[in-house]
Specification:
The chain is about 70% helix and about 0% strand. The longest helix has 25 residues.
Amino acid sequence: MMPAARESLLDAAYMALLRRPWSAVRMVDVAAAAGVSRQTLYNEFGSKDGLARALVRREVDGYLAGVERALAAPGDIGERLASAAEWTVSAARENVLVRAVLTGCWSESLPSPSLAAVPSGSAVPAQRRADGPLPSPADLVGLVRDRAVAAVAVPGIGKSDAADLVRACEVVVRLSLSCVTAPPGEGGVAELVRAALPRQVR
């Protein structure tokens, strides 16, 4: 199947999820919305659980791509980390699956695929990847922290400064996650991030 057709199926599944609980989403309806046969949908994802895993994987990948875009934007370290934090809060507010993955809180209306890898006999490389382990909230903290450190570290940074940078990046990630569950007040997440950063990292 062409990647565009796979994306169409995932788009259709996500739109169906926004309209009804995942338990009420029917594979035949997802296939029809994407303009393919139900057999094509099963050939690509194997099962409804396979579709759910692929959908969660795609939303996580999209969130992480947004983190990388925010970290690559012009600005000083504080501005770039604040931008990544703002993206985290925004993505979680707008995408129910991103919010669930970031917080570990899966409502009954959402799919709840196991985070552990599942056996995969799929010939589809993208599906084999989706059948691998899905990230837990702790995994995502580490992934985002490591991306932040790699994006903002300067060549030749000393060991002590590098350790401070790692801690600062983890604080920013955890602070942004706290803002997902308890939205910040006036000034928003960017102001909180600025206040939390050590002076030598700003």
